[in-house]
Amino acid sequence: MKKISFLMMLALMLVLAACGGAQEPAEPTDDGADTTKEAEGDDTAREFTDIAIMTGGEQGTYFPLGAALANNIINAHIENVDAASFASGASVVNINGIIDGDADLALVQNDVAYYAAEGINMFEEDGALEGFQGIATLYPEVIQIITAADSGIETIEDLVDKRVAVGDLGSGAEINARQILEVHDITYDDISPEYMSFGDAANGIQDGNIDAAFITAGLPTGAVEALKASKDINVIAISSEKLAELAEAYPYYTEFTIPGDTYGTEDTTTAAVLAMLVVSSEMDEDLVYDITKAMFENSDAFSNAHQQGANITLDTALDGMSIDVHPGAQRFYDEQ
């Protein structure tokens, strides 16, 4: 009896020793996964991340496209990320927002992004800025010089001594206004400049408090459509000669014709730059890759949000890219 008990005890000790001994590493599965890690959970899963996206005024083009990027692309297709978009003063404010850490992504004009990276024009005082890179260029941003049809303003020269909305102070639209006036030998001393958003400018024309407005945005622009619904408007043309001077001085401008059916006016020749999406250089490379991939795999979200969204395509994503591309976005492009 004692012999049997001893043998049973010995067997039990051997079993316990085997259970408590060192565990051999699990063999990789056919797809390279570690079965032990799989059982314990994936430690490489991305931590939950909040993303702030700066757009533009609520009646511009940036605002609906930024909302689509946040809600219908990033939040809908990328796990463990919560993106939110916000109205802002647009390009210059947005670049500074990225630099200051107030935003992670932003929509800006490609010319303004270049000025910031080079430390010229409105960024000359602070010098070249770092900390932001490009993801993609998006669509043409058209400089629209809007007046009431009964204003008597037919040319840019007619803006002298008039009350002119030139965009938010320091915005991309305001810089466009300065440069276009400059090639017509007009300065702010020759007009009464008013710094205001597109919506406020349209309301000013409606109320008779503003004679004209410079608006740089994709077509059609909500603020102009809202004005057109209650008042006949004109879109002031820029001559081909002046457009050539503008492009020579500032090479990011291109000639653009606003179709007459956009606002029920005549076809109008003007200038355009490009909208683009920029990102903080500090954003994780894999996350930027995922955002870029999600953008172009779900680009219909942009076209559903605004007519200009149809111009956001992989084929043109690097056209007019004026700054360095983020490594995460570049990796996506290299795979195509």
Protein model, in words:
This protein has twelve helices and ten strands. With 336 residues, it is α/β, with parallel strands linked by helices. The protein has two domains: 50-139 and 275-335, D-Maltodextrin-Binding Protein, domain 2; 141-273, D-Maltodextrin-Binding Protein, domain 2 (3-Layer(aba) Sandwich), CATH 3.40.190. β5 (163-165), α6 and β6 form a beta-alpha-beta unit. The radius of gyration is 28 Å and the shape is globular.
Mind sketching the topology for me?
Layout: H1 2-20, H2 35-40, E1 49-54, H3 62-77, E2 81-86, H4 91-99, E3 105-109, H5 110-118, E4 132-148, E5 163-165, H6 172-183, E6 192-194, H7 198-207, E7 212-217, H8 222-228, E8 233-235, H9 240-249, E9 254-258, E10 268-280, H10 285-297, H11 300-305, H12 327-335
Parallel strand pairs: 1-2, 1-3, 5-6, 5-7
Antiparallel strand pairs: 3-10, 4-7, 4-8, 4-10, 9-10
Helix pairs in contact: 7-8, 10-12
CA-CA gap between termini: 77 Å
Name of the top-level CATH class of the largest domain: Alpha Beta
Instruction: Indicate the structural class.
Output: alpha/beta
Write down the overall geometry: globular
Low-confidence stretches: 1-43
Could you state the order of secondary-structure elements as H and E? Answer: HHEHEHEHEEHEHEHEHEEHHH
Q: Nearest-angstrom radius of gyration?
A: 28 Å
CATH architectural arrangement of the largest domain: 3-Layer(aba) Sandwich
CATH superfamily of the largest domain: Periplasmic binding protein-like II
Number of helices: 12
pLDDT averaged over residues: 87
Number of beta-strand segments: 10
Q: Classify the helix fraction into a percent range.
A: 25-40%
Largest sheet: 10 strands, mixed
Number of domains: 2
